[in-house]
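Anyone else keep sequences and structure tokens together like this?

Example one:
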Amino acid sequence: MTKKAFSVGSLIPGRETVHQSPQQVKKDDHIQLSQKSDAVQEIKGSQKGVSWKVTPIKGQSLLETALEQKQQIQYKCRKGTCGVCTVTVEEGQALLSEPNTAEEKKLGTALKDDCRLACQAAII
């Protein structure tokens, strides 16, 4: 008895399922995978002397992620206008989007000191 693999395409009437054999893993591929696991897995920062750390959740703002993970980050408007959610990112800056217009307008030169608006900094 053969097992049939289903995919989204296989559920469309008239489509045939194409079976492919698994590719062999090369030594170089293994090295690349292990190097990726050494990447930063947390974003660490502080706000008004209180340190925090979060596990990044791609697609969410830094504020949404922090609140979901029970981190005490102060905030108010969630639009990038009040500046209450200003945080200093100490580790994991590479996991955040580039500063947007609201952050540039509100923080100005403080962006160079790793300050971000938690409500506007998106995790990528």
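And example two:
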Amino acid sequence: MSGEAPRKPEPRKPERGSSAGETLSMWMESQGHRVNILNPAFTHAGVGVSCGGSYGTTTIVIFVKRN
């Protein structure tokens, strides 16, 4: 991971009813997410969505490099 220590995932909270495309747009507007999305060192991404609870809809992405 580009020499950085692993960090706790930071969920982004899209507006209720937003699409996957809107969520990706939000990530591309976030400097940290954009850098990771465009980083060729990462070979895989995992995406999770949780609906409901105290945070409403929460979307998270985790980037990994597979050997």
